[in-house]
Design goal:
Number of strands: 11
Number of helices: 1
Shape: globular
Radius of gyration: 16 Å
Low-confidence stretches: none
Structural class: mainly beta
Strand content: 35-45%
Mean pLDDT: 94
Distance between the termini: 37 Å
Order of helices and strands: EEEEEEHEEEEE
Length: 148
């Protein structure tokens, strides 16, 4: 089978229930889950592991969006507003393309995320490049590595 776009577990994770899925036929987003119990102290920011990586075609990107219920129900927000997973993040040498949700606890209490809880939504989308774009760089690392 030819791979076009989708998700895989990173090495070290075997629980296939972590693989994202859409809940309804008209949903744009795939629900990503918490792969390991994670504690986020009041006011702190933590990278929440999902245990997955995403592959896609050239000219595509994966956007991570906060779940609308996170602030009200969990006291959490996706601190970078929208996460951006580039196609060359997949299988990078630094972290295998492991997708993390960068969450901030906006409460005055400890927030505990349990394995299997839905944390963010992921949406595949095409992207465009500007006239004269001649980008030739190669990814050399994982999370937050471009432009270092």
């Amino acid at each position: 089978m030819t791979k076009i776009r989708g998700f895989e577990l990173i090495s070290g994770y075997t629980d296939e229930t972590l693989l994202p899925k859409r809940e309804t036929a008209h949903a744009a987003g795939y629900d990503l889950k918490v792969a390991e119990r994670t504690e986020i102290p009041a006011g702190d920011i933590r990278l929440v592991p999902t245990g997955i990586k995403a592959y896609m075609q050239a000219g595509e990107v994966l956007y991570l969006y906060d779940r609308s219920s996170n602030p009200r129900k969990k006291g959490l927000v996706l601190i970078n507003s929208v996460g951006l997973i580039d196609g060359d993040y997949y299988d990078n040498a630094s972290n295998e393309g492991h997708i993390f949700a960068q969450m901030k606890n906006i409460t005055d209490k400890l927030v505990v995320l349990e394995e299997g809880e839905r944390i963010v939504q992921a949406v595949f989308a095409p992207f465009l490049v500007a006239d004269g774009d001649e980008a030739t760089g190669q990814r050399t690392g994982g999370f937050g590595s471009t432009g270092q």
